[in-house]
Amino acid sequence: MPLSPATSVRTAPLVALGLLGGYTVARETGIRPLGGVVLAAAGAYAGRTWAVKRGAGVTTALSALYVLGFGASHPLAKRIGAWPSVLAVTAVATAASWALVDRDA
Amino acid sequence: MPDPLVPRLARLPRQLSALPDAASRVDLAVDLLHELVPACEAVAVLVPGPSGPATRPGPADHDEVGSLVARLEQEVGEGPATEAAHGTVVTSSDLVAEARWPRWTPRATADLGLRSVLAVALTSASHPLGSLGLYARRVDAFDDTDRALAGSLAGHLARAIDVGRDPSTAPVDRSVVGQAEGILADRLGLAPGTAPAYLTGVARAAGTSVVGAAREVVDTGHVPGPAEDAAG
Question: Within 13 Å and on the Cβ side, how many CA atoms surround A6?
Answer without folding.
Answer: 15
